[in-house]
Amino acid sequence: MCDTMVALGNATADGSVILAKNSDREPNEAHVVEFVPGQTHRPGSVARCTYVGVPQVPKTLDVLLCRPFWMWGCEMGVNAAGVAMGNEAVFTKEPHQRTGLLGMDMMRLALERAETARQALDLITELLDTYGQGGVAGYGNRSMRYHNAFIIADTASAWVLETAGKHWAARRVQDVASISNGITIGAEFDLASPRLVSHAIERGWRQSAADFDFADCYSDTLYTHFSQCRQRQARTQAGLEADAGHITLREMMGLLRSHDGAEADWSPARSTMGSVCMHAGGKLLRDSQTTCSLVAHLKPGAPMAWVTGSSAPCLSMFKPVHFAGKALEIGPAPGARFDGLSLWWRHERLHRAVLRAYGPLRALFASEMRALQERFVAADEALAAAQASPAERQALAQDCWQQADEALAEWTARVESSPARERQPWLYRRYWRKQNALAGMPPLPITME
Q1: Among 107, 93, 8, which residue's Cα sits nearest to residue 65?
Q2: Which residues contact 344 (CB under 8 A, 6 or more apart)?
Q3: pTM
Q4: What is the 3-state secondary structure (H, E, C) of 46-113?
Q5: Cα separation of 370 and 364, whole Å?
C-alpha cells in the first residue's frame, strides 16, 4: 500500500512543484536508493526489466530511483529533466496478465526517457498497450498482483494516470492532488484509452456512456475497501488543501510522517491500514510497512529530491540528493537480509527497537531529529538562494547524509540501552519475531514483552 501527492506552483510557497510519496511494502523488503547515469545505447539494445525486455532508446537520462532491492523498476524517482513520479497499487475487476511490465518498470522506463510529464504519460500508456502490465509484484507474497496508478509531475505541471489492465484514464492536476490504493478518477477526465467506456458497457457495468464513472465501473470493491485507501487519500488531500498556497518541503514531509490518530498516545501496535506512515503489525491485518519515502522538489534547471533511504519516516531523516553527475556515497545497497554496512538495515535496528515502546523511546531522540531535519532544509535553501553550484549543493548533501548517519548510530545506542517497554499483543510480538528471524536481524538487547 502507498500514498502519493503533488502540489503545483500555485499551491506552493516558492512556486515550485513538489511531489511526495511513501512506498509501503513488506517489512523486510529493503529499498535501494540508486543514481543511474544516462547512457548511450547501441541499436538493437534491450532494457531487461523485471520480467520482460523492452527495446532501448538511443539515449537515456540521469535518474534517481528508489526501488525494492529485487526488482528492476522503481517505486518513485526523479530525472535530470525535472520529471518525478510515484505509483500506487490499485485493485480492479480486470484480469491480471501472467507476465508483462510491472507498474514500477513502466515508471523507470518513463523516467529514463521522458523530459516532460506529458511525455512520460504518453510513454506509459504506449507501454501499457504494447506489453500490458503483469507479473508477481510482491516480494514474499508471490500471489501479489495489481494494476497501477501514477502521479507524474514536472517543473510546471502534473497528471494523475490510473489504469485497469490495458484500460486507463488521466486528468490534469489543477493545484493539488493525492492518490492511494484506489481509483480516484470518476466521470471527469482529460484523456482515456480508446475503449475505456465501451468496454465497461460491454461488461454490463454501465448502460450507456452518459452515466460512466471510471472508479465505480472498474474498481474491485472488496480489495479497495480493505486497503483503507479512501481514509489515507482523504487525509492527504485535506492536508494539501488546508496548506494550499504555502506548501513547502516541510509540509510534505509532515504528511508522509502522519499517522491514523493523535500522536500523543499513538502506537504502531494499535495502528491500521489507514495510517499514511504505515507500520506493519500482522500477516492478515497489515503486512505493509513504509519502507522508503521521497519528496521531489522540482524547479527548472535544478530538480532535487529528499529521501529517507529507510523505513518509517516518523523515525527517519529526509536527506537531500542533487543531480551533480555522480552518486552520493551512502554505503552498499541493501539486500534480503540484515547487513550492518547498509543504511537501510542499520536503521531497521533503531526502528525495531523503538517498536517495544514507541512513545517513550521515540521521545529519546525526536526533538533532535526535528532540529537536525530543519538544519538540513534551511542549509540547502540558503545555498539555493545564494545560487550555489550543483557541486556545492552536492557537497552539502553528502555532509547531511554523514551527519544523519552519525545521529542514527547515537540514537540507536540510546534506544537499545533504555529499559522502556510496553505490553504488546501476543500476535504482534509473534509477527515481529518472525520478521526479525527471516531477515537474520541480530538479537536486540531488550525485546518486546
Answers
A1: 107
A2: 30, 31, 32, 292, 309, 310, 311, 334
A3: 0.97
A4: EEECCCCEEECCCECCCEEEEEECCCCCCCEEEECCCCEEEEEEECECCCCECCCECHHHHHHHHHHH
A5: 12
| Of the listed ranges 159-173, 239-253, 278-292, the one predicted with least confidence | 278-292
d(CA 305, CA 445): 35
For residue 276, the one-letter residue type is V
Confidence of residue 195 (pLDDT cuts 50, 70, 90): very high
Q: 187 pLDDT exceeds 90?
A: yes
The CA distance from 148 to 133, in Å, is 8
SS3 293: strand
Q: Kindly report the number of other CB atoms within 10 A of residue 137's CB atom.
A: 24
Residue 326 has pLDDT above 80, yes or no: no
What is the CA 274 to chain-centroid distance, rounded? 16
Residue with cell 511525455: 119
Q: How confident is the model at residue 222 (pLDDT cuts 50, 70, 90)?
A: confident
Residue 163 has phi, psi (to 5 degrees) of -125, 160
* Residues labelled as active-site residues: 2
